[in-house]
Amino acid sequence: MKQILHKADSRGLANHGWLKSYHTFSFASYQNIERMNFGKLRVLNDDFVQPSMGFGTHPHKNMEIISIPITGALSHKDSMDNKRSIEVGEVQVMSAGTGITHSEFNDSKTAATNFLQIWILPEAEEVTPYYNQKFFNEADRKNKFQTLVSPKTNLVAGSLPIHQQAYIAMIDLDIAIETTYSLKNGAYFFLIAGNVKIEDIVLDERDAVGIWDIKEVVVKAIKPSKLLVIDVPMQ
Questions:
Q1: pTM reported for the whole predicted model
Q2: Is residue 171 a contact partner of residue 143, using CB atoms and an 8 Å limit?
Q3: Which residue of 127, 171, 185, 187 has the fewest C-beta atoms within 10 A of its own C-beta?
Q4: Sheet of 54-60, strands arranged across
């Protein structure tokens, strides 16, 4: 088994006032040659958007972009004529392909929004842009892995498709529950909340560990926990 541990306090931080963004990998002004990616996982940003603020219209191209709200909601508008609000419990996917523009705003006047922004390098470039979002029932991830995103060519029933042999799953673990995760490629475990042990690695809130060259790992909750897994090709 190979592994790389990323503690929460080792991430890059950009504080723009209206936005506080923790960067797991090099992004914008945070550049770290040792933190460029984990396989095909290129970006994992932990973003906090202040009330009535947001990202103005900006472009993307040839990237699979996944957004997962943790608290609050974001209003989304894009060049594909999608005008939607994405809320806690939902997952949004965009295949930027040949090119899109979009904006995201926190419409709340009182509460900040926290969401995870994930970029995965596609297996095919210049595809037709695609957008979708879906609500996932949290009961379906109680002490078991719920697949949120999977490859368009090998779609897991009920999940959202992307143009890469990658899978994103989430699990809500009760205290002392132990389960097994079977790796498809290399797996990047990001602990949203709680305290878990993965094999002999202990993760606290917002810690992460990338694991590869092993078929499965044992995950045990030390406290009630919410865990995200991003399973991506390493080459």
A1: 0.97
A2: yes
A3: 127
A4: 54-60, 100-105, 73-78, 83-87
Given a contact cutoff of 8 angstroms between Cβ atoms, the answer to whether 168 and 148 are in contact is: yes
Residue 173: what pLDDT?
A: 98
Q: Report residue 171's pLDDT band, with 50, 70 and 90 as the boundaries.
A: very high
Q: How confident is residue 122, by pLDDT bands cut at 50, 70 and 90?
A: very high
Q: Which residue has the tokens 């399973």?
A: 231
Neighbours of 55 (CB within 10 A): 17
Tokens of 90: 């939902």
How far apart, in Å, do the first and last CA atoms of the chain sit? 17
Hunting for tokens 């090119």 — which residue is that? 99
Best CA proximity match to 193, nearest among 41, 46, 14: 46
Do the Cβ atoms of 97 and 126 come closer than 8 Å?
yes
pLDDT band at 110 (very low <50, low <70, confident <90, very high): very high
CA distance 35 to 41: 11
Count of helices and strands (H, E) across the chain = 0, 22
Please give the backbone phi and psi of residue 48, each rounded to the nearest 5 degrees, phi first: -120, 110
Q: Show the tokens assigned to 213.
A: 């060259």
